[in-house]
């Protein structure tokens, strides 16, 4: 089902020829692993973005609260091990390398290691399911930067010394969606045991807020997905599918969290805390919080949801349950391996699973996909220039 993803400029958006990859590149966000890492990590994340110092100080306290350690690197070590186990159980001989955008092990060191081991064709899985600058293009730019800084980008006339392709954005892949659907069903059952009927529960699907300018440009250039771009449209469509699979008629909404940037810059709204404040207490007695935009229980989940949003809900006298992220759920892990094998085998588009009319998303990002005018154009792997 191609739906809203028409073939456009830039050749075929899907690769249906088999490709012999040498290894999988698991690309993470990265996080600090001790108090001394916190500020240097935050500087890496916000390099050149104009995030106010007060915001960095505030975010630093979230990490300090947990000993300066984000669980995100440990999650990725576990995910890597789980993917390796899934590959082994299917008899697939593909090594898995792991590299981060913002903290060690850095992508540049990982691609250098790849080359040393003789690998020239990598298929990347970024730990991020949706389309936007922060969740797709920035990973692609960081791949290109890692190749450039290690001299492995190639010179434009010869093929890159190391080629990095990327699996499609997997927001509507059944392996990503199933853990959320199961989690919502379990949360509603738990609340029902406590005496709350489905119509007394409000389900809040939460994702990372991004600047409106980034949201509007998410997805391929020249294609309108509405005000919030492909980013908001994908979340809206996945939330609908999750409610269907969870067989629930509970009222629900899509909300945003973890806003940063200067206050005068518009970001996607409503903020989850404002949304909880505005729920009608006559009708609502409980909330289910679904971290729909995230793949693991990292700091944005542990702090912004489990500390802040849960507190906002308690302050209003609501019962509240937070649904787990996919983490290393067997269906998620198996889905990621399926996404790799889709490219290894050159699976026809019609046979690629996708649960919303927006997918299956592109293998090759379209021209201008998820462009960021603030940061300017940079080379990016796994897409059509610019
Ligand atoms: C869409 C999106 C995802 C999901 C997709 C993906 O996974 O990529 C994501 C993930 C994450 N964001 C994370 C942490 C941070 N994000 C920040 C800043 C920002 N995120 C943004 C967007 C996103 N972020 C944006 C538009 C900014 C503003 C600055 C900019 O335009 O670049 C800042 C700076 C301080 C602040 O402003 O909060 C931090 C510390 C962590 C790690 C958590 C841990 O350590 O466990 C993870 C997984
Ligand atoms: Fe993209």
TrEMBL record:
Keyword Lipid metabolism among UniProt keywords: no
User: InterPro entries per the record?
Assistant: Ferrochelatase, Ferrochelatase_C, Ferrochelatase_N
Which UniProt keywords are given for this protein, alphabetically ordered?
Cytoplasm, Heme biosynthesis, Iron, Lyase, Metal-binding, Porphyrin biosynthesis
Where does the chain bind Fe-coproporphyrin III? 70, 139
Cellular component per GO? cytoplasm
Pfam families recorded for this chain?
Answer: Ferrochelatase
EC assignment: the record states 4.99.1.9
Report the CDD domains cross-referenced here.
Answer: Ferrochelatase_C, Ferrochelatase_N
Q: What is catalysed by this protein?
A: Fe-coproporphyrin III + 2 H(+) = coproporphyrin III + Fe(2+)
Family (UniProt): Belongs to the ferrochelatase family.
Role? Involved in coproporphyrin-dependent heme b biosynthesis. Catalyzes the insertion of ferrous iron into coproporphyrin III to form Fe-coproporphyrin III.
- Protein name (Swiss-Prot/TrEMBL): Coproporphyrin III ferrochelatase
Q: What species is given as this protein's source?
A: Ruicaihuangia caeni
What gene does the UniProt entry assign to this protein? cpfC
